[in-house]
């Protein structure tokens, strides 16, 4: 049975809920063990990191609350959760794990605890990236690399010397003939990961789901014909001659001198801090670099820099007390694939898009993700119903990197790629990875022009479906901007047109140039926006220039625009840039009347605007008379308030809106008489339903 993906936020033991029964606790330890085994095998990911961390936190919390339940070799007590492949290379000292914190408060608590344990304020800290790879210990004798072992169970690991010899950053020979042990992480850069998957699939293998998996699999592979490049960054050194008494930062600098790549020498760098405030700032700046490093980090590691502080703090059986991992939100989660949509872009590119059960990835709720292209989809054999890995790196559109084959429902069927363009039924050009409709931009032109000309968009009378089809067929228009350079004689010659109609049509097209920005935006059909959202965007940014220049973050200033929608809007606007430029050049208005230009506003004052609020934010006075479907009188009045209005019992000229339902009497008549704005009660019910559904409706739309 596939398990439901857990959307549980990452928690630490202090905040995690202990299990209620010893059986549940034991079952959780088994799940962790199974997941850890798969993790160290590097073949499959049984559980995403965040779920793993959350489960381990609950196990830890349970053990604190119920010491009597603790099972022997519990994953909360041992280093590799029982999953590491124990080889025959014994480690000189145990290879420990790290405890985690997830926010500033927990970090401060850790620092305070460290000060308490050592009996004085810690002398200083280092901050370095936490590389998401596989831990190894590498021994050099007289400057030569002689042995490399995985972490295994922390005491003994597997010999991977042969495979590790080609790892970048782990030289076969040091710059001086010293005998030393360096420890660090073997990982795959994003570029090498892409290459590794090309190689694997070219050899008929299934692609790796993510770089960590790829690194672990490659490092442990014995004799594959297609070994992919791996990298190494050291984070610790043991037995460095003359290294006693060196701070961590100095010892790492010393091994960098010997030719070994270190976390501090990577693009992420190492910060040395003296206060916790400095730590917080250093963590934030490393976090901001996360997407630009070219390799995955899952957090940062904070360590006491002074050897005296480390000695005083010591270690538990699982982790040192002088170091802590500050985990970033996981960038890979699992979720259920609910469906695969086939989308045709403006240029005719046909792409499969995954519709998934909502899941938090990298701190953002994700409901759809790219499947890249059909080749990739078929190669990965991702099927509807599968538990899939969803990865989101920074502001990039989330992607599906693979499916968990062991959780596939028995009845899952392979995805059938479309035979013809799903939009126009035309032929598909499959000569490249990105499939395209052979019609290119012309595919969908009729549809998008009709949307542009529609009543709620540019409202161009006379430009109906038939005329649009004729214009497209004659090759006179492919995008909306082409409408504004139409030639009267050519149009007049179209079937059933004639000079009079053509003249009228061109005048109407010309007239539409004055439409406000909100309507231009609506007409362009930006994905994930409709009429109300277009209006909101136009009101917020004031001009097309400001809107197109907005960052994903700035887009989120607009009500009901979350990270997912913001990323889509930004990508859509970038895609539309050529058409927007053409429209601007042809004199189409690109500003929203009455809105202060975005750049001239010092602060953004716009808050959540409710449908029954006036433009200045004050409540509209609303009278409900007669019955509203599905609501009692009180509920009707409550609904008015929920929508931002103020309900009143009597109609006067100060009334802003009168909702009229069945059985309305004199109040409705009075409203008519005073010329007040009247709304039928079924429209009001629809407005309320839209608001309940979180659509942020605008009154004018109902
Ligand atoms: S220090 C005794 N520093 O994260 C302390 N570990 O989740 C040893 N890791 O087992 C760990 N980057 O495999 C340290 N900069 C870094 C690291 C790092 C990645 C790994 C390491 C460790 C695991 C704990």
TrEMBL record:
Keywords, in A-Z order: DNA damage, DNA repair, DNA replication, Ligase, Magnesium, Manganese, Metal-binding, NAD, Zinc
Gene (UniProt): ligA2
Keyword Transit peptide: no
Database matches in PROSITE patterns: BRCT (PS50172), DNA_LIGASE_N1 (PS01055)
Reactions catalysed, as given in the entry: NAD(+) + (deoxyribonucleotide)n-3'-hydroxyl + 5'-phospho-(deoxyribonucleotide)m = (deoxyribonucleotide)n+m + AMP + beta-nicotinamide D-nucleotide
Binding site for NAD(+): 49-53, 97-98, 128, 151, 185, 303, 327
Superkingdom: Bacteria
Pfam families assigned to the protein according to its UniProt record, in alphabetical order: BRCT, DNA_ligase_aden, HHH_2, HHH_5, OB_DNA_ligase
Protein's UniProt name: DNA ligase
Ranges where the BRCT domain occurs: 620-678
Enzyme Commission designation: 6.5.1.2
